């Protein structure tokens, strides 16, 4: 396939200042009439050919300045429309009529139907599946859209912007016109038409303008959009208060659809959502679902400024909108909930998804320089590491200067299709600082490693850190340059408070942050009388791996006393990880894993520490997952040994703390009336982690079964079901609970996703047969991305022992399924296939079988560009 390169960017010869679209909707043959006002760009001499993008299009009519174009004057293929000699005048009008079949569209890009509702997805390159266009993000156009449809089939007609004229067309058809005054790229175009229920509300902006808010959902589900609407209003207010950003149209519409390739889409004034991220009540959604809804509603809303008003010049700049908008939604959630708990959750996600990407064959810079298929670059690196990079800018500049830079960004670039260079420039201009070395975070792939050795000289009252940075090689980047790494830190004294030091030598230290810029720094703190415990990378100030020789006593001390909550969590997590790695080694050596008494007791102390939030305690005592342990071991992975080691530590902690955990579990009690707020969710989280521990003890299945039947909300019910299915799969309690759950929710697709997920993650040899059987379940469908992700995605990415079964049957099933999904939906298949990205870290037997699986996919006929790109890079 073709390779696109950043350095090949050229502005287009033509612009499209105005785009008027008419849609005559019909499931099998929709007509799209596009009337474009086209302008030659200033400074272009002559009349270069006009080349419009298409994808699978059928051209019905083309007119230039009101006259039919002679067939010799243009060339149309499904992939492009070329006008060799456009008019010599500066401006001309082009009319293009295409025919498309939304009902046949299973890739869910362009115009398609979900549950009878017409909807669109155009990012990144879906607009070209609707009409011929300059389908690139630097072509900003003002759109007017007229939709015509059968009134009974689609009483609701929506597009971007503000509503205009609407009326009857006779013959049971009607129309509506929408106008969006803000010039936008084609990827932000959206249309929705169908029969949906409405939840309406309103919002008065800081300057006093009233905005009509609407969320459209399936009829009968209106009640389930309450939390989404509340999240929207809080997001709108927050963006005014924290970033000074007001909403700019008269209406803001959200539509929930059940067939969607990802989470949601920020189309101007008309966000389209995967219904999983809109619909929730206590009976059907977990606390994690509520938190995701809040975050994603906010994320898409925040794109209105970071993405829509200021968009990307080209797709290499994707992180300009995504990394920044993730950072904004993280900050929003931190303000709405517990900042410390939110930060820990973010870091866990980053390590689980971005680190393996950055450390494997699919590694790429936050701003990539080349791609074959842009859809494969909506990655954890672009999104999550992109957000971490913005966070580091704020750490380096300080909150006030960061806000000044953001203000300048909005002022200088409103209406632009901008670049990462533009973004960095505003912070340099606002602060007068040089960010050129820092910019490497955008350009260089790989997770930097920082190695630290600490020593205290009691005679001279000096504390010294020897710090070294290195960036490991990544595909096509073998030589790396040195990074600017902001390392937040504290020297913790015996009273648990940070020790003051008199002076620092060897690196620049500002406001508790060591700035690493060289390969090696010897940083000496003078005036330090007692040997401190060193707390490094506080708040996870830099997305790095840290290797530091630390005494277990120091880590235990930090786990109890570090003033930075994140580092406190980190200290205990490091202890747990070290213990699990050692235990895995024991299992492999045929020995019984053993754990330090102090460690298992500390779990009990943290669980019961009433000075800490429930949610923090729950996170602290949750063991690293099997994939986390595998990542930290790094090579020669045997998932069965990891599983055995982890279960052994669960058992050791549960046994030692048995009566304490039982009492705590009882005290936390079953929930009374439900509230989705963070404090209530934290209490449930702690109680459910305790259940997980207690369930490993004798009669654990009875306790879990009681928990299951007493549950009055989905969080508790799903937690109990998971414990039963994973820890006591053969018990009557597990079988009954799975059956009861299925019976109760069989017609609620989103809840059935949880049922599929729990079973797909069931550890052990039997999972592959179970998952295969479940693909035939009436609630499952290969055509629906949520179902596929729940069952197949969970199996491949969250079931280490099942998927990586030593005999390779997990991989065989995976190959068949990925290829079956691909026939309909290449994007979802390509995403699934990334589950094998860490195949080289497996032990040799599994490694060979995983490689065969990848080769089998790459040998399949008519492989899509999406899947080919992933598989070839993974094998390279
Ligand atoms: N911008 C969209 C993602 C589009 C993915 C296209 N393959 C959602 C978001 O990040 O907000
Ligand atoms: Zn986004």
TrEMBL record:
It catalyses: Release of an N-terminal amino acid, Xaa-|-Yaa- from a peptide, amide or arylamide. Xaa is preferably Ala, but may be most amino acids including Pro (slow action). When a terminal hydrophobic residue is followed by a prolyl residue, the two may be released as an intact Xaa-Pro dipeptide. GO terms for biological process: proteolysis. Residues 45-188 form the Aminopeptidase N-like N-terminal domain. Residues 227-438 form the Peptidase M1 membrane alanine aminopeptidase domain. Residues 553-876 form the Peptidase M1 alanyl aminopeptidase C-terminal domain. It is an enzyme of class 3 (hydrolase). Keywords: Aminopeptidase, Hydrolase, Metal-binding, Metalloprotease, Protease, Zinc. Its cofactor is Zn(2+). It comes from the Bacteria. Its EC number is 3.4.11.2. Belongs to the peptidase M1 family. This is Aminopeptidase N. It comes from Mesorhizobium zhangyense. The lineage of its organism: Bacteria, Pseudomonadati, Pseudomonadota, Alphaproteobacteria, Hyphomicrobiales. The gene is pepN.
């Amino acid at each position: 396939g073709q390779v696109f390169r950043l350095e090949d960017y050229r502005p287009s010869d033509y612009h499209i200042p105005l785009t008027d679209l008419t849609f005559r909707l019909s499931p099998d043959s929709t007509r799209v009439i596009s009337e474009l006002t086209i302008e030659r760009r200033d400074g272009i001499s002559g009349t270069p050919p006009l080349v419009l993008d298409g994808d699978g299009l059928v051209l019905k009519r083309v007119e230039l300045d009101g006259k039919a174009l002679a067939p010799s004057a243009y060339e149309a293929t499904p992939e492009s429309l070329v006008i060799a000699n456009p008019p010599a005048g500066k401006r001309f009008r082009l009319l293009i009529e295409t025919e498309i079949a939304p009902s046949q569209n299973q890739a869910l890009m362009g115009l398609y139907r979900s549950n009878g509702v017409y909807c669109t997805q155009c990012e990144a390159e879906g607009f070209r599946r609707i009409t011929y266009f300059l389908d690139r993000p630097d072509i900003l156009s003002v759109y007017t859209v007229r939709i015509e449809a059968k009134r009974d089939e689609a009483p609701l007609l929506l597009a971007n912007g503000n509503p205009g004229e609407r009326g009857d067309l006779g013959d049971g058809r009607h129309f509506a016109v929408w106008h969006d005054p803000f010039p936008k790229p084609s990827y932000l175009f959206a249309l929705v038409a169908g029969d949906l229920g409405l939840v309406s509300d309103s919002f008065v902006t800081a300057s006093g303008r009233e905005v009509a808010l609407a969320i459209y959902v399936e009829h009968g589900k209106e009640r389930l959009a309450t939390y989404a609407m509340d999240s929207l209003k809080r997001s709108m207010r927050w963006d005014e208060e924290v970033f000074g950003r007001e909403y700019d149209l008269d209406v803001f519409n959200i539509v929930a659809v059940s067939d969607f390739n990802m989470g949601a889409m920020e189309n101007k004034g008309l966000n389209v959502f995967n219904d999983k991220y809109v619909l929730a009540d206590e009976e059907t959604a977990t606390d994690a679902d509520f938190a995701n809804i809040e975050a994603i509603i906010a994320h898409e809303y925040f794109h209105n400024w970071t993405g829509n008003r200021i968009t990307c010049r080209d797709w290499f700049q994707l992180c300009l909108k995504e990394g920044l908008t993730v950072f904004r939604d993280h900050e929003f959630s931190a303000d709405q909930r517990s900042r410390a708990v939110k930060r820990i959750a973010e870091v866990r996600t980053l390590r689980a998804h971005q680190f393996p990407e950055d450390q494997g064959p699919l590694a790429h810079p936050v701003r990539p320089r080349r791609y074959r298929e842009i859809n494969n670059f909506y990655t954890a690196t672009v999104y999550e590491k992109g957000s971490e990079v913005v966070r580091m800018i704020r750490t380096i500049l300080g909150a006030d200067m960061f806000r000044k830079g953001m203000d300048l960004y909005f002022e200088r670039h409103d209406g632009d299709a901008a670049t990462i260079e533009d973004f960095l420039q505003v912070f340099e201009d606002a602060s007068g600082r040089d960010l050129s070395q820092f910019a490497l975070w955008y350009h260089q792939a790989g997770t930097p490693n920082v190695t630290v050795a600490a020593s205290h000289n009691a005679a001279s009252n000096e504390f010294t850190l020897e710090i070294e940075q290195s960036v490991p090689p990544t595909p096509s980047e073998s030589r790396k340059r040195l990074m600017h790494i902001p390392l937040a830190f504290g020297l913790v004294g015996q009273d648990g408070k940070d020790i003051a030091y008199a002076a620092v030598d060897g690196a620049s230290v500002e406001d508790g942050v060591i700035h690493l810029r060289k390969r090696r720094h010897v940083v000496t703190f003078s005036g330090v009388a007692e040997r401190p415990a060193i707390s490094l990378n506080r708040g996870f100030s830099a997305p790095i791996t840290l290797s530091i020789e630390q005494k277990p006593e120091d880590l235990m001390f930090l786990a109890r006393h570090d003033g930075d909550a994140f580092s406190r969590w980190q200290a205990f997590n490091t202890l747990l990880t070290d213990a699990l790695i050692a235990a895995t080694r024991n299992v492999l050596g045929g020995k019984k894993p053993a754990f330090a008494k102090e460690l298992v007791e500390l779990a009990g102390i943290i669980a019961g520490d009433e000075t800490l939030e429930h949610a923090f305690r729950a996170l602290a005592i949750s063991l690293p997952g099997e994939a986390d342990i595998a990542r930290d071991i790094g090579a020669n992975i045997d998932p069965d040994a990891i599983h055995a080691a982890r279960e052994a530590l669960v058992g050791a902690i549960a046994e030692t703390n048995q009566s304490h955990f039982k009492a705590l579990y009882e005290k936390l009690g079953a929930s009374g009336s439900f509230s989705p707020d963070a404090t209530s969710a934290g209490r449930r989280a702690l109680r459910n982690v305790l259940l997980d521990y207690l369930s490993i003890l004798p009669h654990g299945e009875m306790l879990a079964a009681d928990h299951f039947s007493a549950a009055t909300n989905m969080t508790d019910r799903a937690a109990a079901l998971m414990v039963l299915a994973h820890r006591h799969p053969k018990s009557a309690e597990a079988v009954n609970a799975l059956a009861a759950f299925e019976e109760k929710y069989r017609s609620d697709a989103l809840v059935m996703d949880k049922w599929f997920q729990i079973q797909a993650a069931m550890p052990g040899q039997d999972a592959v047969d179970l998952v295969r059987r479940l693909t035939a379940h009436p609630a499952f469908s290969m055509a629906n991305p949520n179902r596929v992700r729940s069952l197949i995605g969970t199996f491949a990415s969250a079931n280490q022992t099942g998927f990586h079964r030593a005999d390779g049957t997990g991989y065989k099933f995976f190959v068949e399924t990925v290829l079956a999904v691909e026939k309909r939906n290449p994007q979802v298949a390509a995403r699934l296939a990334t589950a094998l990205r860490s195949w080289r870290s497996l032990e040799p037997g599994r490694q060979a079988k995983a490689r065969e699986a990848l080769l089998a996919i790459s040998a399949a006929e008519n492989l899509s560009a999406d899947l080919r790109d992933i598989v070839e890079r993974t094998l390279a």
